[in-house]
Amino acid sequence: MILFHNLTPYEFGMLTKKQLKHIEGRLMDERARALKALGLFDRISKLDRESMDSDLSAYTDHMADQGTEAMEREKAALFATKEGRYIYRLEGALRRLYNDPKTFGDCHTCGSAVAFERLDALPHARYCIDCKRKEEDEA
Ligand SMILES: [Zn+2]
Description:
single chain, Four Helix Bundle (Hemerythrin (Met), subunit A), 7 helices, binds zinc ion, globular, mainly alpha
């Protein structure tokens, strides 16, 4: 993993390189746990291992490449479950983290940094606690 090799801590704003690695680990763990709950872990790990660049895109790209009707049905069934949607969110967060580590952890509503403690507890969180509370008040 060479994601952060040319970046020094504190270039990320609120989150240090070490904190981002921690969140990455949390997302990977949660993803593995949710996949296990769905009985998909062995299969997905195999896809991960088979991929040349060994990142999570292997999973979705592989599924997309296959493009068979059976696979489409399976995917639809997967994302219809609570666990499946959770995995989808976790992978979205991993993608954000890899693609744009500098803004990872910024609230999608107000742009301020989401507290590290909140990200540790809820690594796929996209909103700071204030915006999340506001949203819940309005709901
Ligand atoms: Zn916010």
